[in-house]
Amino acid sequence: MSIEKQYPRQQDKHDDLPTLDQVLSRQTLPPVCLYNFYIIMRDRLKMEEVLDFYLDLQHHELLWVKYVKAMHRSGHLSESDLSEGYHSPRVMSRLSHSTTQYPASSSPSSPSPQPPQNLNMPMSTTMPSLGSSITTTTDNLNNTSVPSRKELADSSQKLLLRYLVPSATKEITQLPAELVTALRNELEKPDPRDDPLLFREAKEYLFDYMQLQAYPKFLRLKVWGNITLYQQLGRLVVGLVCLLAALTTSLSLIFLGYPQWGVRFWILLPFWIGILNILIFLTGLDPIWALVFNRSETTTFKFNTIKQPQVKRIIRSRSIWLLTTSIIISVICTIIFCAIPPRKL
Predict the structure, then answer these.
(1) Fewer C-beta neighbours within 10 Å, C or N terminus of the chain?
(2) CA–CA gap between residue 161 and residue 157 (Å, rounded)
(3) Residues 29-52: what's their mean pLDDT?
(4) For position 305, what pLDDT does the model report?
């Protein structure tokens, strides 16, 4: 039920670029970071629920790992139980629902208070404040609190209510119907499962889906460009206005009888501004922002510093090419209009 993994073959030419797994594991730097990936999924691809679900599954897995470690410290699990990993069938069997619901380090009568969570918000991130909250999953799991088995069960039920039931707040339509049905059947039982192994197939499917459908577009927008869609449209307007001004000025100087070259050569400036902005619209790359300020736009007029070395190299080389092209085209247009003999009306 998994999607065929074709993306690595498509990226052979750029093997040094970060992989999707590195982005999701927060091992990359702007502009190819998890923060920007979420923005592209939300604003350009309109499928942020896929990334939300994937991150919440990661959060659930981390809760499970922390719970298993606590059970190991309390003596419920031995070293041999963990020899095959935290998600092995042996661990699942030992930590069945007949097991004590709370680790030894926490008391059933006084569980740690948990703040209420809004089902409209992802468990692992609070999306309205992306910059500060995209890493809350790891931060929350590094504190001293130990999750109970009840918290694990609540976490799996929130995954069901938020993503899997019909008309859910962020219903996942990208998963196959039979997989969603299988998950719902397990989670809606009187004694539902809460181990991460239940969601493994769904997580792998969504990873493959993002790798094929979302990540190549993300790379194209953030590795080969540095502006947003609205910025591109604005540059198109500026470019067309400047080209109209350049053509109007050129013809006016010709028909007012201005001699060749001299004053008429100043039309180079509006020609260059117009052509540059048209090229920025076509490529999604502003060479001035890249070469002078080393900036990449996240949302309109909000910027990241370009820190990923491979991305910085690609964007700078493309910026030099774009600037050179715009200057050459502008000089050609200027020479053509300056060479036309004056004809005073």
Answers:
(1) C
(2) 6
(3) 95
(4) 95
Q: CB within 8 A of 268, min separation 6: which ones?
A: 330, 331, 334
pTM, 2 dp:
0.78
**Apex 262 CA angle, 261 and 264, nearest 5:** 65
Q: What's the rounded mean pLDDT across residues 47-76?
A: 87
Residue 117 has pLDDT above 50, yes or no: no
**Residues 184-199: tens digit of each pLDDT:** 999 998 888 888 889 9
pLDDT higher than 90, residue 19:
yes
Percent of the chain with pLDDT over 90: 60
SS (H, E, C) the chain: CCCCCCHHHHCHHHCCCCCHHHHHCCCCCCCCCHHHHHHHHHHHCCCHHHHHHHHHHHHHHHHHHHHHHHHHHCCCCCCCCCCCCCCCHHHHHHCCCCCCCCCCCCCCCCCCCCCCCCCCCCCCCCHHHHHHHCCHHHHHHCCCCCCCHHHHHHHHHHHHHHHHCCCCCCCCCCCCHHHHHHHHHHHCCCCCCCCHHHHHHHHHHHHHHHHHHCHHHHHHHHCCCCCCHHHHHHHHHHHHHHHHHHHHHHHHHHHCCCCCCHHHHHHHHHHHHHHHHHHHHHHCCCHHHHHHHCEEEEECCEEEECCCHHHHHHHHHHHHHHHHHHHHHHHHHHHHHHHCCCCCC
Domain residue ranges in the chain: 46-213, 221-339
Tally Cβ neighbours within 10 Å of residue 282: 13
